[in-house]
Amino acid sequence: MESLRKFKCQIIFRVVSDAIVLGTGGICLLMFKLYGDPFKRGFFCDDDSLKHPFKDSTITSFVLYFVGFTVPIAIMIALEAFRVCMQKIPEQEKSINRHGKLIVYVRDLYLSVMPFLFGAVVEQLTTDIGKYSVGRLRPHFFSVCQLDWTTISCENHSYIEDFKCHSDDQNAVREVRLSFPSGHASFSTYAAVYTVIYLQVQLKVRMLNLLKPAIQVLILYAAYYTCLSRISDYKHHWSDVLCGIVIGITVAIIVAVQVSSLLPCNSQCTSLGADNETNTGTSDLAVLSHIEEKNRRYLLTEKDH
């Protein structure tokens, strides 16, 4: 009974601490959205890269985040159910025999979804810090700002810092300063790369043959198209999109290796995992281990009394 009570306390502590981390990150993102003030960057009045017309987004923010969260999580829900019900993984079978399929499924799903959400928060914070610190003007800056050119002296390739936008849409004026890096590019790339890694590691069915890589390629194509649309819609400069792609890929790989352990970790991580296992005892609980089965870092174990 004592070990079971300790196990429940550890689960509650982990869930609460994870929720606090994600909640804190979400609040930081909300603060950027509500109160963030982009760096006031000037411009060269003969800069042709800022003279593009304003266009509506091909991929709206709603579509981006709805699909970017729904598709990966739906894949995780389906694949974890398949793994529990259909695949015969030795360590997972032991856990199922002790705790039942439902508990193991909920545990595995939690350990899949939470790292993905954590990575999304990190990726968004990284992007927003860049946006508000740099304040780069979007390609449609002149179209949105509606400058009064009679008050601006444009001579000899002059750099203009003292200017005022006369647009009635102040939110659009604020958004026009948030070109670098591209949020669409960073999030779509993060979601796509993480999902591709997840499928590569977790979906082990030989009969699928080319189906798995086909799904992975389609996911990457969706992110690729999203990135290209930001350039063709004149929402970002190509370098903004490129930087967003780098952020997305980097965060996806780091989260896959260090947080979810979808990818092999180094010897130091392995030794740390061994230390944690020693500290918690050889157990009646369980922490699922990706390194042993190449899928989970945590192995659920149970103390025998």
Task: Pick out its properties.
about 300 residues; mainly alpha; two-stranded antiparallel sheet; 11 helices; 4 strands; elongated
Describe the structure in your own words.
The protein has helices at residues 2-35, 61-85, 90-99, 101-134, 141-145, 170-175, 183-202, 211-232, 238-259, 267-280, 290-293, and strands at residues 43-44, 159-160, 284-288, 299-302. 64% of the residues lie in helices and 4% in strands. Helix 7 (183-202) packs antiparallel against helix 8 and helix 7 (183-202) runs parallel beside helix 9. The protein has one domain (2-272). The protein contains 11 helices and 4 strands. The strands form 2 sheets. Strands 1-2 form a two-stranded antiparallel ribbon. The model is unreliable at 266-305 (pLDDT under 50). It is mostly helical and 305 residues long. The protein is elongated.
